[in-house]
Automatic annotation (TrEMBL):
InterPro entries: SBP_5, SBP_5_dom. SUPFAM superfamilies: Periplasmic binding protein-like II. This is ABC transporter substrate-binding protein. It is found in: Cell envelope. Pfam families: SBP_bac_5. It comes from the Bacteria. Residues 66-464 form the Solute-binding protein family domain. The keyword Mitochondrion does not apply.
């Protein structure tokens, strides 16, 4: 019998969130510590559409049909882009227009340091000016000619139009930051306060004004986690209106809990239609991480690897004010540390063939001409003996663990500035709780590092706490900035923009440069990539960063091995930027 294919309307889908990560920030002007997939791509964008939608049919391109704006029109000198906003409607009847873009821009200029998508020197710093030129048009004039592709993918991707209804400084105090930038900070403070009052999200007159296909129906707080229920926005202007009656985002505490929810089946009280298969529950290895292998939950679910355009790494805190921060600034130490990580062993033994190496700042998969030819190799393959040589040749005795500094100073063969004799190679590594595969990788890494003379003390921490505490910091009375190594079991996904030029991750002062890496040559190479479409400039940047080890490159793997109910269609093809479109999802055969 041929399986049914006719899309049915109605039904509910429950999505089990990644362990430790559920929606906890609703305001699209999101700070760096909350700037992640769970808040942005799987929650906010469902209700508040960004100016452009990225990812179409599984390809890393702009989907202009889903976008709120037409393609940018550039002036002959390549300096000015004019954007026409489509006449979508907000749920309160307002029209999405140029004023909504101007409100966002005024908040961005006033509070850019509070926005996770801001990188000093780039948008909006690189604008000579911007203005509303018609009710549906805004023009942006840049301070010099940049790569138009880069501007579209990496700069305009940071804009989310905000409704006039949000332009206020209190519940009963309308403002006009739309036209007066001087009022923007007060408006931001009000909206941030509304965000932080999480218990009131589902009844808020602010967050109820949406222009996306979904609106928030209920939100329940359980500790630091949140469960969100979204329902269709009946006023949505797009043609891609939801089939479903309801989309639920439920938190999970661990990979084990997630797996048990799936194993109990679709009809269980806590049954889920979409979850993910933990790697330690993979029964047979995959030959291709993009296709997947045999599915142990195949009776009820289809296995869909969520392969996104991302890199995996963990940051090290260059701004740590103790001697540890001085050690981290030494390239030889970072080379030694990277050489202690057995990526290929983890791909084989832990990730069951679903992994692939991270060898620099640009993903190896999906394959792309943006990847440097040199990136197909590994600059620092797993080699404990090589790690020990990096250390002994630079002033350390590694005959026991932890090794100790025996040659202080800044000359050849000496440990480096600010590292006194007798300093031990002992460090702390905090990593996300609830992921058995990460725990296994961390324990093996610590054991191999110990063989090279580096002692790493491991501590499990709730992921939601980890990303708040171990982040970009400057030492001071209110910020001790003492964390050393931190792994939240992720890295960076190049989305919603695509062009992987690195200004957010490795430029001096970027809010999501979590380890506060700073290098003048890296800044110079990054600056070249944003004004040039020459791949050689992109290659030069990524080859340098790969050699410099500003973070420790971790084995990469599909973001999740999604388990999708067999009668639920529309989830694939996977968006390479991690965005989701539950408005496309529909049941066939039977509505749940």
């Amino acid at each position: 019998m041929t399986p049914p294919t006719t899309p049915l309307r109605g039904g509910s889908v429950t999505w089990a969130c990644t362990s430790g990560f559920s929606p906890v920030f609703i305001f699209p002007f999101t700070p760096g510590e909350y700037y992640g997939v769970a808040n942005l791509h799987e929650f906010q964008t469902l209700m508040y559409r960004p100016l452009y939608w990225y990812g179409s049919g599984g390809q890393p391109t702009v989907d202009y049909e889903r976008s709120l704006a037409e393609p940018p029109q550039w002036s002959e000198d390549g300096l000015t882009a004019t954007i026409t906003v489509k006449p979508y409607k907000w749920s309160n009847g307002e029209t999405v227009n140029a004023d909504n873009v101007m409100l966002w821009m005024h908040l961005l200029e006033a509070e850019k340091d509070s926005f996770g998508g801001y990188t000093p020197g780039f948008f909006p710093d690189n604008l000579a000016g911007y203005e509303k030129v018609a009710e549906d048009k805004v023009s942006f004039t840049f301070d010099r000619a940049y790569s138009h592709n880069w501007v579209l993918m990496n700069q305009f991707s940071t804009i989310t139009p905000l409704p006039r209804a949000w332009d206020r400084t209190g519940d009963d105090r309308p403002a006009d930051a739309t036209h007066d930038p001087a009022q923007a900070s007060a408006v931001y403070a009000y909206l941030r306060a509304c965000n932080d009052e999480r218990k009131g999200w589902d009844t808020s007159p602010v967050w109820s004004v949406v222009n996306g296909p979904w609106k928030l129906s209920s939100y329940t707080i359980d500790g630091v986690s949140g469960e969100a229920v979204l329902v269709p926005n009946e006023s949505y202007s797009g043609t891609d209106k939801p089939y479903l009656d309801e989309f639920r985002l439920v938190p999970t505490a661990s990979d084990t809990e997630q797996y048990e929810m799936l194993r109990r089946g679709l009809d269980a009280l806590d049954g889920v239609q979409i979850g993910f298969l933990p790697f330690d529950e993979v029964t047979e290895p995959a030959e291709d991480p993009q296709l997947g292998g045999p599915n142990p939950l195949g009776e009820h679910y289809e296995l869909v690897p969520q392969l996104t355009y991302k890199i995996h790494y963990f940051p090290i805190n260059f701004n740590n004010p103790t001697v540890a921060g001085k050690i981290f600034k030494q390239l030889y130490f970072r080379q030694a540390l990277q050489s202690c990580l057995d990526s290929r062993g983890a791909i084989r033994d832990v990730y069951k063939g679903y992994g692939y190496p991270t060898t620099g700042p640009i993903p190896a998969l999906p394959d792309s001409p943006l990847l440097s030819p040199a990136a197909h190799g590994d600059p620092y393959p797993f080699d404990v003996d090589a790690a020990r040589r990096f250390l002994t040749e630079n002033g350390w005795d590694t005959s026991s663990t932890p090794g100790t500094c025996v040659r202080e100073g800044t000359g050849p063969g000496e440990a480096g500035e600010g590292i006194p004799a007798g300093t031990p190679l002992r460090f702390s590594m905090r990593y996300a709780k609830g992921h058995e595969t990460l725990t296994e990788v961390m324990r093996k890494f610590a054991a191999d590092a110990a063989r090279a003379g580096i002692e790493i003390v491991l501590t499990e921490v709730e992921a939601s706490v980890l990303v708040l505490e171990d982040t970009t910091c400057t030492p001071g009375p209110d910020s001790p900035c003492l964390w050393e190594f931190s792994d939240w079991n992720g890295g960076w996904g190049y989305g919603p923009g695509f062009y992987p030029t690195g200004e957010a991750l490795y430029s001096t002062g970027s809010s999501v440069n979590f380890g506060s890496y700073s290098d003048p040559k890296a800044d110079e190479l990054i600056a070249r990539t944003v004004v040039s479409d020459d791949l050689e400039d992109l290659y030069a940047y990524q080859d340098y960063i790969a050699q410099q080890v500003p973070v420790i490159w971790m084995p990469n793997f599909p973001f999740r091995l999604l388990e999708v109910a067999k009668n639920l269609q529309g989830v694939a093809p996977i968006n390479p930027f991690g965005l989701i479109n539950p408005e496309d999802w529909h049941y066939v055969g039977e509505v749940r």
